[in-house]
Amino acid sequence: MKLIDLDLPLPFPSPKDEDWQFTNIAFLQEQEYIHPQILSGELVEQVIGKLTPNQLNCLSIENGQLLPNFTLMEGITISSEQNFPLSGHDWDYFAYLNLQTAKHTIYISIESHTEIDVPLEIDYLLTLDQALAQPRIVIDVGGQSQLILIENCTGRSANYLHNLVLEIRLGAGAKLTHLRCQNESLTGVHTATTVIRQSTNSYYHHLNIDLGAKLSRFNPTIYIQGEHTQTILQGLTIINHNQISDTHSYIHHGFLHGYSQQLHKCILADRSHGIFNGRIFVNKLAQQTEAMQLNRTLLLSPHAKINTKPQLEIIADNVKCKHGATVSQLDPEECFYLQSRGISAPNAKQLLTYSFAGELLTGINNQNWQTKAKALVQAKLKECWLASA
């Protein structure tokens, strides 16, 4: 199967489209893909017999299919739904590709007034070459409930397209910490659309770490649909070689007393290319909104490049909003200071680079995931310095 042969309501993206002007994906049209096999009833029973149950609240999605070896805490229910309705949203081409060609939606519900003290972890894994894997998940977090959601995206195969759609609905007073790490194969392509809907007094904290894939595109969209909400949106991109990482975010403030803070950092080495397009919209009804947005980029190579476009659109007249972007290299004076304290030049550069990334890692409130994330970030930074040496 080729994408060029599919009949979708949206045309295939091209650099002529404003949202894709820096990301040429024409090569994907001619790529031949295969659909991973959907497990039949007999095959599911065979798989259950071969699999060892995972840890509590851990879901495994291999090649787009949910494996049945999971155990969930009380208060969490899961089902596989066909033609499950998603909320209204301006879906892009890849989201449409998922919605029209993937058969099932994984629906997860968290009961109201429930504190889930063990994180809900979703592990996405690609093991087939040239696979088109398209998980689609909807999560309802009931009012006054608390949850930590962890997504891990990895790939062991080649020339695949991993195309995810996730919608999360937060009830009134719900609190969600959402930790996500994309560390896929450097020959694979990763695209993901995440839509968050926040009700009154809800809290949402998201951290996305983007390390892998030949080309990755992440579209986090947040709709503020109630008063007195808090939104923390963070991203950390570390890439090297010829990797391309594209983040297009959107936060829509639609009610009074909303607070949002966005910080996206990029560390780019070798001939890598980073794209950040962050848009915050404050409509007329969202008075007394406070919104902040910042993109900071560190270039480790003269050949690396960044295209950054922070945006604020404000219709309300009683708000506190600011945005900005910085692009820089390591400060020679800071390197010299560390060297004067007996630290070698390579170690000084690595220390400064890690401290640039570390600001985002220190705020993680799950120790196990924080330890894993730090190890992955440190390993990726070593690769970057070798590539830029």
Descriptive notes:
The structure is a single chain. This protein has 5 helices and 20 strands. Helices cover 17% and strands 42% of the residues. The chain has one domain (31-388). Helix 3 (332-340) packs across helix 4 (345-361). By secondary structure, it is of the alpha/beta class. A 10-stranded mixed beta sheet has the order 2-1-5-8-10-12-14-16-18-20, with helices on one face. Strands 3, 4, 6, 7, 9, 11, 13, 15, 17 and 19 form a 10-stranded mixed beta sheet that branches.
Low-confidence blocks of residues: 40-51
Q: Report the radius of gyration as a whole number of Å.
A: 21 Å
Q: What is the averaged pLDDT score?
A: 90
Estimate the global geometry from the Cα principal axes: globular
N- to C-terminal distance: 41 Å
Structural class, please?
alpha/beta
Tell me the number of strands. Answer: 20
Number of helices: 5
Number of domains in the coordinates?
A: 1
Helix proportion of residues, in percent? Answer: 10-25%
Strand order of the largest sheet: 2-1-5-8-10-12-14-16-18-20
Beta fraction of the residues? Answer: 35-45%
**What sequence of helices (H) and strands (E) makes up the elements?**
HEEEHEEEEEEEEEEEEEEEEEHHH
Largest sheet, if any? Answer: 10 strands, mixed
